């Protein structure tokens, strides 16, 4: 398998505080479906932030597409998507406008202005929203008037419209009922859909609900900022989970 991302001895800390991440060595190959698990405070969010370039490691080296993140050209950076735990949606926009924001990195200023003025086409946005089981009645509804679960689906739709090759997600199934969790998880794992939407081939999802790890090819367990285990899903046993929770 082709290696897409390599982390060598990555550590992270704020000022002189205790290290949040300690000597992380990790390789992510093309096509892998990785579940990242661990207690709150284990370092999952920080690791994702380093992987997508929004945080810079204190020590160590990271390569994405065989380059340091700062050396990636924009075309490569656009192939990396993120679903944040706090969603990072825009309250003053409608649901469909928020989804369309996922296209901004691939479009020019005119498109951006049209989107914000609500005169741009939302055809692709609606396909992504329908794929995420968002009812058409809320497409034009202001984000402030949506439920937590609806906002979660909007954030997922926004990541899908970007059509990234690599997708990082920090607790992407929060606020969703079990049926929706399983539907969306299986959608990302299988990549199969009738809308001709290109879903990411390589994913790393931080998960709070342990029952969602089924279907992932690999599970990474973090404990106190360190990788406690990194094993195929079918090799994971109950004692592995007990040791990190």
Structural class label: alpha/beta
CATH homologous group name = P-loop containing nucleotide triphosphate hydrolases
Task: Determine the strand fraction and express it as a percent band.
Answer: 15-25%
Into which percent range does the helicity of residues fall?
25-40%
Biggest sheet layout:
6 strands, mixed
Shape annotation: globular
Number of helices: 8
Oligomeric state of the chains in view: single chain
Architecture per CATH nomenclature, i.e. the level-2 architecture: 3-Layer(aba) Sandwich
* SSE string: EEEHEHEHHHHEHEEEH
Number of domains: 1
Radius of gyration: 18 Å
Number of strands: 9
Task: Summarize the entry for a quick read.
With 245 residues, this protein is an alpha/beta fold. The protein has helices at residues 44-51, 74-77, 95-100, 109-116, 123-131, 148-161, 178-190, 238-244; strands at 3-12, 21-29, 33-37, 59-64, 80-83, 166-170, 202-206, 218-223, 226-232. It is globular, with a radius of gyration of 18 Å.
What is the strand and helix layout of this fold?
Blueprint: E1 3-12, E2 21-29, E3 33-37, H1 44-51, E4 59-64, H2 74-77, E5 80-83, H3 95-100, H4 109-116, H5 123-131, H6 148-161, E6 166-170, H7 178-190, E7 202-206, E8 218-223, E9 226-232, H8 238-244
Parallel strand pairs: 3-7, 3-8, 5-6, 6-7
Antiparallel strand pairs: 1-2, 1-4, 8-9
Q: Mind explaining what this structure looks like?
A:
The protein has 245 residues and is α/β, with parallel strands linked by helices. 28% of the residues lie in helices and 23% in strands. The protein is built from 8 helices and 9 strands. The strands form 2 sheets. The protein has a 6-stranded mixed β-sheet with strand order 5-6-7-3-8-9, with helices on both faces. Strand 6, helix 7 and strand 7 form a beta-alpha-beta unit. Helix 5 packs across helix 6. The longest helix is centred in the middle third of the chain and has 14 residues.
